[in-house]
Amino acid sequence: MKIVFCDYVSSFSRAYQYGGVQVKMFETARWLIKQGHEIEVHASPLTFGSRVPEPAAHMDGIPYFEAWRQSIKADVAYVVYYSPLAWQVLFSLK
């Protein structure tokens, strides 16, 4: 099963790295990979503060994509959003 996690803020913003939602998102993604699922993480490039250097080092091989507008095809999408309508602007889900 293909599962996609969508976050409205970059997972590599220093203010958010290893905090709250991102921690749970990556812990869950790692667990789901061990269960045999295909996992991707999508986010907007929005950051609060500086960016974390070498983001791939933090991903443990989980595919990660950043863009302002993304078209996502998955069996399940878990969307983390700030505003109830923000995810509809950032992510087109199928």
Summary of the model, kept short:
This protein is 20% helix and 28% strand. It contains 2 helices and 6 strands.
Helix content: 10-25%
Strand order of the largest sheet: 3-2-1-5
Number of strands: 6
- Counting helices, strands and paired strands, the structural category is alpha/beta
The number of helices is 2
Low-confidence segments, given as residue ranges, are none
Order of helices and strands: EHEEEEHE
Q: Which strand-content bin applies to the residues?
A: 25-35%
Q: What would you report as the Rg, rounded to the nearest angstrom?
A: 12 Å
End-to-end span in angstroms?
14 Å
Largest sheet entry:
4 strands, parallel
The rough form would be described as globular
User: Averaged pLDDT, please?
Assistant: 75
Break the fold down into its secondary structure elements and pairings:
Blueprint: E1 2-7, H1 21-34, E2 38-43, E3 64-66, E4 70-72, E5 76-80, H2 86-90, E6 91-93
Parallel strand pairs: 1-2, 1-5, 2-3, 4-6
Structural features, described:
It is built from two helices and six strands, in the order βαββββαβ. With 94 residues, it is an alpha/beta fold. The radius of gyration is 12 Å and the shape is globular. 19% of the residues are buried.
Features:
alpha/beta, two-stranded parallel ribbon, 2 helices
